[in-house]
Amino acid sequence: MMSPPNLSTEQLELWEKNGYLIIPDAISPETVERLVRETRKLLDEFSLEGHPMTKFSTGGEDGSEDEKHVGDDYFLNSNDKIRTDAFDSTGTLIKPKAKAINKIGHALHALSPPFTSTTLTKRNCAIARSLGFRDPHVLQSMIIFKQPEIGGAVPPHQDSTFLYTDPPSAVGFWYALEDATLNNGCLSFVPGSHKSAAIKKRFVRLKEGGTGFEDVEEGKGNGVREKGGIEAAEVGEFVMGPVTKGSLVLIHGNVLHKSERNLSDSSRWIYTFHVIEGEYEYDEKNWLKPPEGGFSRLNDDT
């Protein structure tokens, strides 16, 4: 049964309490299949020739933020293109192409009709408005693959670190195209950490080229720091969040979340995009630049 077009009082209470919300059966099996077919088409069309063999991660493999991030034009200029991340940390393709690609992004919602029709919808607009958005804008749409046996772990992170507004406003819309299980790398969260873990660093384009982290100015970070925000390692225990295909997971930009390696023989494909508040400042330091004409808007009459 399809979920209602807006969030219920109970769902909003869970969102406020936990900083994430799982909505089963958010899109139909037919929509899932349509997105899977489009994904396979994109994989078939992707050519390895000329690929710069880049890798983009949320931080060090141990969860730290010291690891250098990709700073080349391939991903920095992906705001209005569909591009892939297909290689391991050494630049080696160790599986067949369709079994090795990690990501396709970052403009699927703008350039791929099946993803556009799933993203820029009245329902997603109603959800965003239920969460308090006045002018919701969509950016950074991606298919993320955890491939069988090689899908890597994603260390604890906060999405607002990478899509920073002042004040922070990012919310992830995470649609499962396959079952995400305890064995193939489902998400896990620290419930309530959006209230206690401030955004202390942000991911930026460096003046000297490439990307890196810089400290967020004292007093910012959604007001958490003023309330005695604590370090990420101290906020609490992670709770696993397995979901079935067709589910939507909403992810507050401040909530700590991660995923483990996929050591199973089952893949885990998901489609995700982020929404930010268009009335807040999204400045030139952000690594992902708005395309010509600006980020896509979610409208009530979409």
From TrEMBL:
Per its UniProt record, the required cofactor names are: Fe cation
Source species, domain of life: Eukaryota
What is the protein's given name? Phytanoyl-CoA dioxygenase
Entries under InterPro entries matching the protein = Phytyl_CoA_dOase-like
Record keywords: Iron included? yes
Write out the entry's keywords from A to Z.
Answer: Iron, Metal-binding
Which family, according to the similarity comment? Belongs to the PhyH family.
Look up and give the organism this protein is from. Answer: Discina gigas
Q: Does the keyword Iron apply?
A: yes
